[in-house]
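Final report, closing paragraph on structural work. Over the funding period we assembled a curated collection of sequence-structure pairs, and we close with a single example.
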Amino acid sequence: MHHRIVIVGGGSAGISVAARLRRAGEQDVALIEPAALHYYQPLWTLVGGGVVPVETSRRLESSVVPRGVRWVQDAAVELDPDARQVTIASGARVDYDLLVLCPGLELAWDMVPGLAEAMASGQAASNYTPELASKTAELVRRFRGGEALFVAPGSPIKCPGAPQKAAYLASDHWQRTGTLERAQVTYATGAGGIFGVPEFAAVLEAVVARYGITTRFGHELVEVDPAARRATFETTGPGGASRTTLSYDLLHAAPPQRAPAFVRDSALSSPGPFGWVPVDRHRLVHARYPDIFALGDVCDVPTSKTGAAIRRQAPVVVANVLATLAGAEPRARYDGYAACPFTTARGKMLLAEFDYSLAPHPTIPFIDTTRERTDMWLLKRYGLPAFYWNLMLRGLG
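Its predicted structure, as stored:
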């Protein structure tokens, strides 16, 4: 197979780029994606919060692939940028003139011994898969008091605020049911603080105080013993590294995350255990291959891995892809915009919008988004899903 443009990945980024390319008149676009279902993953926070069923977050992949795009329903297993070729699981090779790489990332449960086994137990869950998000809701409902531990790694993950959101929605539920006074809620993260933008961090610190959540920053999860219900963390101080163990009755964990194996094993990845794809952070073109662009969770741009970031990256990639194919210099620029909608309670949300400068970057006029708001909750619950399915995936927003 040979195609003028090949897109690897049929998630938010791949579908958005494919739709925009078709609207721009590109006739020869192929999309490599093995999954039969397409998920709007931001809803998994609300699934874990017991607000919506997981079924509301998914549709058939065939319903979102743009008309006129060739869908290769198979998994990419090897990238050869010098030969301009992608090998898929069937053994077939797909040649390209230009490649758009957006396969997302993989959940690296194996990087923390015992974490996968904990997820199979009756005391642990995670909002990072649809099945485990539903389990989160059930565990929160059944919890009657004790040690509730919410964990996030310090390394990059998609929607880095999601583990906090799980803690806030659980605490809100327990506060409403009278369980919170019998709970010790801890949020432990390898990050150095609650959030990197001071204006939003101040609001989140107040939320933490309201629920009485204990925060442990600089705590990297390194091992879980599901039988003993104990989690071990590594901390680094003036005297070097040390370890701390916390017990739990309920564990919610965001696993470490990394680029898919076929990316990590290719010439397109950066060194290290995560294998992110190095790109020019403004033009999103690969650092070494001018005929390859990357966006979404897999690339190494220094901003949060969120759907809002993809929304701003997609038009930049499309503009620069078209310029490159026309023999021109790719000049469209991405400013690092990302957004994290922090659900701080059922009915309240803080919309944190920012860019590479780590300063607030509000996009909704006449609304103060530096505080918790009910209208932002309605945006999260109803507005953003509608925007995603009806506009963003169709290349219209």
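The chain is about 25% helix and 25% strand. The radius of gyration is 21 Å. We thank the funder for supporting this effort.
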